[in-house]
Structures are given as structure tokens and as C-alpha cells.
Amino acid sequence: AQKITQTQPGMFVQEKEAVTLDCTYDTSDPSYGLFWYKQPSSGEMIFLIYQGSYDQQNATEGRYSLNFQKARKSANLVISASQLGDSAMYFCAMRGDGTTDSWGKLQFGAGTQVVVTP
Amino acid sequence: EAQVTQNPRYLITVTGKKLTVTCSQNMNHEYMSWYRQDPGLGLRQIYYSMNVEVTDKGDVPEGYKVSRKEKRNFPLILESPSPNQTSLYFCASSSSDGYGYTFGSGTRLTVV
User: Nearest-CA residue of chain A relative to B41?
Assistant: First the structure.
């Protein structure tokens, strides 16, 4: 069974600073995908970044980067130069690739609430 | 615009009164799923579907039903809602490559 763990329930970060959100995972699938989503107070789920388990390089998307350490089974999200609009709940999620029906299943962590202060 | 449309956005109902939350996607995606979100628990999968007429249970299927008669639609049915089904519900779809997950705007359900 797959499991995603986010150990930081909430954190404060000052504007313009970088913040790292922790995510560890457990899976027996040799191939899998890792995702980060942002959920602002309005409630929608916004896709941020994706990392495949066989990708050689860490994924980056603008101010978001994923620090992928496969041996440690961690996939931390780094947000550089935080902005007030980054205040939101952030979820780490994993999709297994063991079977084709795994592709439709995302396993989520409990989330980390980030508050960016001026 | 590529999107997943859920209706209604908000719903207050009474215990035992059957309800349906609709979900429709316009991206011709094979995979569709329903999740519920509760504080401290993240999103948990209720049911998912790999294609028309193919559905399977997720992690928390008790008290829910689904059907996939058309590729674009995946309604969630609560035959006899109970207060412990008060939650925020999301429908999501993805293509067969499993990379592009698109979520609906969510349905906030309150059962009194």
C-alpha cells in the first residue's frame, strides 16, 4: 500500500524568503509519480509540479522546485521568494505505476498550511 | 476551456435524503475519481473509474455509489446521507498517461 506523510501541519514564512515543505512517501511500486498541489482559501486544487520516479533531474516550475531524494523516499517542495499569494494549503500526492488502474489513483498527504507574512 | 465541472458547489441536506453530485469533464479523459477532504486527513479517494462501465472502490467507499455510463460523466450518489459524510468533495479526471490530473471546483456538503 502507498502512503504519503507530511509532518508539518502549518508554518509561517516571511515574504521574499524561501520555504521547504516536507513530504515522504512509501511505495512498493518501482515506478511512480509525485505531485504537489496548492489549495488556496477559495478551495480549488491547483497543480504545481510533477516528478517521475525515473526522472534524472529534479523538477522545476518557475518559483517551485522539487527536491527529490529517491533513496530517502522524500519529495520536498521548495518555494523560492515567497509571496503573499502563496498562503495556502499544500498537498503532496503520489500515483503508483504498478498497474494501469493505479494511474487513476492519487494518494494524498494530510497537507501543510503555509501562511506568508509581510 | 478544459475543465471538470461539479455541481452543486454547496449543498445542505438532511439525513437519509438521497442526493447526487454531478461531475463532467470535457477532455476525453479515461480516468475519473471522487475524493473527500477532511481536516487533518487530506484527500481520500472514494471511487475511481478507468473507463466507461469500469469502476473500483477507493479507500473510503462506504455509503457512496458511482456509475460511469458515459465517458464524460461520473456522478457520485449518496443513497442515505449521514452527518459523517459532511465534507468537501472533489471530482478529478486524468488522461491515460496519468500525468494530467484536473480537479473540479469542489462540492461542500453538509448533512444535518
Answer: A110
